[in-house]
Give the backbone structure.
Amino acid sequence: MPLNNDIYMRKDNFRNIAIIAHVDHGKTTLVNGMLKQSGTFLAHQEIEDRVMDSMDLEKERGITIAAKNTAIQYKDIKINILDTPGHADFGGEVERSLNLVDGALLLVDSSEGPLPQTRFVLKKALSNNLPIILVINKIDRQDARIDEVLSEVYDLFIDLDANDTQIEFPIIYTNAKEGIAKHKLEDQSSNLTPLFETILSKIEGPIADDKKITQFLVTNLDYDSYVGQVAIGRLNHGKLEMNTHYSLCGKDTTSNNHKFSALYTFKGLKRIQVASLEAGDIIAVSGLDNITIGDTISANDDPKPLPRIIIDEPTVSMFFYVNNSPFAGKEGKYLTTRHINERLQKEILWNVSLQVLNTDRTDVFEVRGRGELQMAILIETMRREGYEFMVSKPRVITHEENGKLMEPMEKVFIDIPEDKVGVVTDKLSLRKGRMTNLENHGHGRVSLEFMIPSRGLIGFRSQFLTDTQGAGIMNKLFDGYAPWFGRIPQRNSGAIVADRNGNVTNYACIGMADRGELFVNAGTEVYDGMIIGERNRSEDLAVNITREKKLTNMRSATSDATVTLRPPRQLSLDQSIEFIAEDELLEVTPQSIRLRKMELDQVKRLSLRKKESYSSGS
Ligand SMILES: Nc1nc2c(ncn2[C@@H]2O[C@H](COP(=O)(O)OP(=O)(O)OP(=O)(O)O)[C@@H](O)[C@H]2O)c(=O)[nH]1
Ligand SMILES: [Mg+2]
C-alpha cells in the first residue's frame, strides 16, 4: 500500500540533488557547467568561475563555506541543485543539505581518489538512503588513475555497508572545467548531456503531495535588506499561498496566524517571487520573524511539524572576550558585551553546527564548532563587519563516560615525500599520534595514517607545512572519542613579549636578531604584554622593543644603514590562531590582529607560572 502511494505522489517535474565530495574535487565548478548549459543564463551573459562561491571569503580562499542552492531547467524538469562545501569543518552544511534532496552526485577526483571527506559525506548520504551517481571528475588530469580510483570507491561503499541497490551506482566521467560528461571514457562528448540524462533517469522526483497538510522544513536562512529574514527549504507536502494563515512550529512552541510577505521559487541564482508554491520544490519565504533552522511551517489548524534537523556535535571550542587590551576601542565599531553577544546569537540562527554558550563571566562567550577553519571564518567575517574582540586558543570538547574523561580523536591521512617520514612521524608521536598504516607507493611519496587525539592536531598544520616544505598533504577525519591522553606538548618555543608601551624601533629590532623571529615592523605601536615575536628557546622573554639608540657625538664604525633587518614574519589570522598558547589571546579588530599574553602584567605572569609549576609538580 505505501509503495503504490509513493509512486502516485512522486512529482516528476522536479529533481532535488546535492553535490558532495572531498574539498577541491570540483563541485562548484561542475555546478557552473550545469548552469551554463541549461540555458539559465542568456547567451551573452558571462558567468564568472565558480559563481556559487558568492561570499567574499569563499572567493578569496577558493573554497565553499556555506551550502547554497540553485535551480536549472532541463527539458521540462526543474533540477534543484545543492552545492555543498568539501572541507571537514563545514560538514554540518552537508548534513543539513542532505535533508532537502532525493539523490546525490558523489564527485571523486580522478587522481586523488576518495579522501577522508568523501567518506564522511558518502556515509551521511547512505544513511539518508539516497541513491548515488558517481562522478569521476578531472578526467583531463595527466596523473588520472581512473581504474584504481573506481575500485577504491567500490571498497569505500563496501566498507560503509552500502546495500545492493546503493552499490549499483551509475558512473559518469567528467571534465567539469570544460563542461563535458561521458558514460564511458572513450565516448565522444562535448557537453554535460550524459550527466543531465543520468540525473533524470536515476534520481526520482520528490515524494510530495499538494493536497496533504502543508509541511515546510526550514533548512537554511538568508537575510535580505528589503524583506528581512528569508527561510529556505523544501516544501515537503501541501501548498504555500499568499494571504493565507500558517503556523510556525518551533522547538518548544507553536504559534499561529502567520502570513508571508513574499513567496519565492529559485531560478539559476535568483529568487523569483510567486503567488503560490507547490510541494516537492525547494523554496523560500519571507515575512516571518524569529524563525530558526529546523522549524516547520505548517497548516494553521492541526499543524504537523517535521522532525528537527540533527547534525553531529561540535568538537572544538574557543572563548570570545570583549576586548580589554590597552588599545581597545580604537579601531572597531562594535565592541561591547551586547554587540558581541547579539552578533554571535545571529550567527547561530543560520550556522547550525555552531553553538554559543554563556560563561561565568559576562564579557566572555564560549563558541563551539567543528574546527579551527570554521572558527577562523567566523572571526574574519566579524572583523570585516567592524567587530573588535579577543579569542583564546581553540580547545577540544571533552565529556565523561562512566566516570572517565573522554576526548575527540581524529584519523589523519598524510601524503609526503619519502625523506620527510622521520620528521613528521616524530612530531606526531610527540603529540600522541599512533601510526596505523604506512604505504610506500614506490615513486618517492609515502602515505601514512595516524590515530591521534584532536588536541594533538591543534596548531599542527603550519608546523607540518614547514617540515615538509609545502610538499605534504594532510587530511583528517573525526573518529569518535577515547580516554584522555594526558598532557600533550604544544608550542615548544616561548614568546617575545613587549615590556612597555611605545613604538617599535629599528635599533631594538636589530638587537633581537639572535633571539628569535619578530612579528612586528619598526614603527608599530605596541603595549606592555603584547607578543611581538617567537623566541628560539622555550621560555617567554620580555624585552624593551621601543629602545632608542643613545645619541653620542662619535660616529660609530658600522653605520645603521649597513645593518639589514630581516623582514618580520607576518602571521595570518589562521596562523595566529595556531600560534597562541593557552595563556595567550588574539586581539582582533577590523585593522589589526595582535597577539598578547592573557595576563599583561609581567610580575603577575611570573607568579602565576610559579604557582602552576608547583601544582603540576614539574
Ligand atoms: N583539471 C581540472 N580541474 C578542475 C576540474 N574541475 C574543477 N577543477 C579545478 O579544481 C579546483 C577546485 O574546484 P572547485 O569547483 O572549487 O572545487 P569544490 O569541490 O567546489 O571545492 P570546495 O567547495 O572547497 O570543497 C579549481 O581550481 C577548479 O578549476 C576538471 O575537471 N579538471
Ligand atoms: Mg565548492
In short: DSSP finds 16 helices and 35 strands in the chain. Residues 27-28, 53, 64, 83 surround magnesium ion (ligand 2) (CB under 6 Å). The longest helix spans residues 602-616. The first strand starts at residue 14 and ends at 20.
